[in-house]
Design goal:
The protein has 14 helices and 13 strands. The chain is an alpha+beta fold and about 425 residues long. The chain has a five-stranded mixed beta sheet. Strand 5 (about 95-100) and strand 6 form a beta hairpin. It starts with a strand and ends in a 40-residue tail after the last helix. The chain binds magnesium ion.
């Protein structure tokens, strides 16, 4: 029996999340700006249609914005993250195995299930009904083909958002592959695309028809795997979800230049707290922390440095992590420089069950720290991020990023809940 996979992907995810809570944005062009309102990171279809490019600086599109009455929003990651978790939960109920591939995409393992197109339609209907978000579903015997089917389902409204590769004739399959540039194939990056072009391989179809053995010698076994997948034989399995993240990264550019050590300490404390929260969410502990700071990299005398501290025993305690992070920061901070960015990485992670208590760490300390961290996390979950934080983060946070056009955190903050007036 051939394998079967679905790729479920939300349409214009960030813009769609915003529309759920503000229906006035329906059918209007929307752009969403990066951290610090710098450039465009997401667009609705309408914004794409009037020619807003991906990644363009905000200031460059002011004429377009006026001309087409484009709605401008700062990114609201608390909202997108929460909506993403909800979508994934709903989608995950349709199959025994799910791989969350990105914030708005997930693979489902459908092998052995019947009426796959029907399953796809059900997924689409349920996500729309329960969450108000539009998704498209691509179904195929390999993950690589499921990706292409998803893209096709998105661009042809006739398909009603679902395309099952298995239902196509050989001729239609060939046509579908001919319609994709070779660079659109999963795993073919820009560099590979150029090399393939030189060999005259410009479409997904041409890649499928190429000599797999020869391509394996010329490129790598990875290329052979991609070709085999295009031929409908699965060689990329579902990623094992139980394998927790190997490292957790938290970094941001500052909203304005930062020079003072105390401000960097506030930022690093906050990033560490966020990373620690994720760590506890995953049920893991870190063995080391790396702190990174840098100035403008385009300056002649640019400065970028990092420092790593290894702990005596793995920990998920925010206060412990922050203590080490600040220590690392102080070892690399240089006075008189203008800093643009800082970041924190927790690495060498171990799962909670496998962790050994150090000889010097008592069970009592461990239990106390666990209770305190639980209180911290549950308070922040209930009352919104930042309701409870370590004093080291500072209360003003003047270095924080700009987000002038941010919508409320509708689903994660009590203060931002929608108000219904009944009078
Ligand atoms: Mg998407």
């Amino acid at each position: 029996m051939p394998e079967q996979f679905a790729l479920v992907d939300c349409n214009n995810f960030y813009a769609s999340c915003e529309r759920v809570f503000n229906p006035k944005l329906q059918n209007k062009p929307i752009v969403i700006l990066s951290n610090n309102d710098g450039c465009v990171v997401a667009r609705s279809n309408e914004a794409k249609a009037v020619g807003v490019g991906m990644g363009v600086p905000f200031f460059k599109i002011s004429a377009l914005i006026k001309q087409h009455d484009i709605q401008v929003l700062s990114s609201n990651y608390a909202l997108y993250g929460d909506m993403s978790a909800r979508v994934m939960r709903v989608i995950g109920e349709f199959a025994p195995e799910q791989e969350v591939y990105s914030i708005d995409e997930s693979f489902l393992h459908l092998t052995g299930m019947r009426d796959l197109t029907g399953v796809g339609t059900q997924i689409r209907t349920r996500v729309k009904q329960w969450l108000g978000l539009p998704v498209c579903v691509g179904i195929a015997p390999t993950k690589t083909l499921a990706k292409l089917c998803n893209a096709t389902a998105k661009s042809y409204s006739k398909l009603d958002g679902v395309l099952d590769y298995n239902s196509l004739s050989d001729e239609r399959k060939a046509k579908l592959l001919q319609s994709f540039d070779v660079g659109d194939v999963w795993g073919v990056g820009r560099k590979l695309k150029e090399r393939l072009r030189l060999l005259g391989i410009t479409s997904a179809y041409a890649l499928r028809e190429s000599d797999a053995e020869e391509m394996s010698r010329r490129f790598s076994v990875v290329m052979k795997r991609t070709i085999t997948e295009l031929r409908g034989i699965s060689c990329i399995d579902m990623e094992n979800m139980s394998e927790a993240r190997k490292q957790i990264l938290s970094s941001r550019s500052f909203g304005r230049p930062v020079t003072e050590l105390f401000e960097l300490e506030e930022a690093v404390t906050m990033y560490t707290s966020r990373a620690a929260e994720k760590l506890r969410g995953d049920g893991t502990r870190a063995n080391e922390i790396t702190v990174y700071i840098r100035t403008n990299p385009y300056l002649d005398d640019a400065y970028a440095e990092s420092a790593t501290v290894r702990f005596p025993h793995p920990t998920d305690d925010s206060m412990m992590l922050v203590k080490h992070a600040v220590e690392a920061l102080r070892s690399i901070y240089k006075e008189g420089l203008i800093y643009q960015k800082a970041g924190v990485t927790l690495s060498n992670l171990v799962s909670n069950d496998g962790q050994q208590l150090s000889l010097f760490q008592s069970q009592v300390d461990n239990a106390k720290s666990k209770r305190m961290m639980q209180a911290l996390d549950s308070t922040n979950q209930k009352y919104g991020r930042g309701a409870l934080f370590l004093a080291g983060e500072g209360t003003k946070k003047a270095w924080q990023i700009k987000a002038e056009y941010k919508t409320p955190e509708y689903t994660t903050s009590w203060d931002d809940l929608a108000v219904v007036n009944a009078r």
